Amino acid sequence: MKKVCIVGAGAIGGFLGAKLAAAGHVEVSALARGDTFDALRLHGWRLSTEAGLVQVPALASNNATELGPQDLVIIAVKGPALAQVAQQIGPLLSSGTAVLPAMNGVPWWFSDGIPALRGHPLESIDPGSSIARAIPQHHVVGAVVHASTSSREPGWVSHKMGQGLIIGEPGGGQSQRAQRIADILLAAGFDVTHSSSIRHDIWYKLWGNMTMNPVSAITGATIDRVLTDPLVRGFCSAAMTEASQIGARIGCVIDQSPEDRHVVTAKLGVFKSSMLQDVEAGRAIELDTIVAAVRELGHRLGVATPNIDALLGLTRLFGRVHGLYPEVG
Fold it and tell me: What is the CATH number of domain 3-196?
């Protein structure tokens, strides 16, 4: 693989793009827009780390046709933007292009290959299957990102902790193309795992984030405060138990209790969830991929989700009141 395009050079996309460009093993470009596009053209990739500032010239465009077909396309946009972005990236795709969604929550391809769902797409994520048509399944390599980053300003990212990436084929097993992607990312300094069960890895991360993200967003609390309130912690545990029951029905068994996971999360200390950061910045919240999709899965599988329902309802109403989530219709 020689050509890699980052679609969405925000906190995660800028982190990935800057490290890949600095490593110099592949030609890295960015499909960006607005202030981020202008900043990349003017300043290049900028990444602040504990070791100092990484700054590398960037090849950026706001037109996919100018960039042309790529070997690897990394999509790092927020969930609400994906449907529009999917319609714009066609010129980046050739028959052999791999697409790596470095995004939060349940991806649009998740239900494919799960017998209990009979291949029906998740309407909460991809209504009408417009994303699936624009990015066919054979292009996709699944991904999970374990990193804490934030945007200092458009085109300038700060890295706080973690540089773990898990990648794998959506259908399970390992492949040469996924290993080639892993090798590129390893050479750029990421901690990469080539997983044979990426769907489970995605579900496990979601299981932990599904409550922490929205609860922190609607309360304004950092994660340490969410976990130290016994009533809130108990509510989160109850919702996580429901998600565990759903996971067991789709082959994503969670061999951990909610309390065990809370202990792990608490070790991260004081931090703001990505959804709280979005709320504070006035950005649309990624509620559908993180909570609505889980509720839809529960409904379709016959798993009762009263706590997840309450979590979705409260966060959705909060988002609508603050103009961060679409109104009905």
Answer: 3.40.50.720
pLDDT tens figures, 172-200: 999 999 999 999 999 999 999 999 999 99
Q: Does domain 200-320 have CATH number 1.10.1040.10?
A: yes
Over residues 71-80, the pLDDT tens digits come to 999 999 999 9
The length of the chain in residues reads 329
pLDDT of residue 113: 83
pLDDT tens digit string along 112-161? 888 888 878 899 999 999 999 999 999 999 999 999 898 889 999 999 88
The rounded Cα 21 to chain-centroid distance in angstroms is: 21
CA-based nearest residue to 271, from 157, 154, 162:
162
Q: Are 290 and 209 contacting, i.e. CB atoms less than 8 angstroms apart?
A: yes
Domain boundaries, given as residue ranges, for the chain: 3-196, 200-320
User: Across residues 197-204, what is the average pLDDT?
Assistant: 96
Tokens of 34: 């607005």
Give the integer Cα–Cα distance in Å for 54 and 170: 33
299 burial via Cβ count (<10 Å: 0-12, 13-18, 19+):
middle
pLDDT exceeds cutoff 70 at 329: no
Catalytic center residues: 205
- Give pLDDT tens digits for 269-290: 898 999 999 999 999 999 999 9
Find the DSSP H helices in the chain: 11-23, 34-43, 64-67, 82-86, 130-134, 176-187, 198-219, 223-228, 230-249, 258-266, 274-281, 287, 293-301, 306-321
Closest by CA to 78, choosing from 55, 56, 110, 103, is 103
Q: What is the DSSP track for 286-328?
A: -HIIIIIHHHHHHHHHT---HHHHHHHHHHHHHHHHTTSSPPP
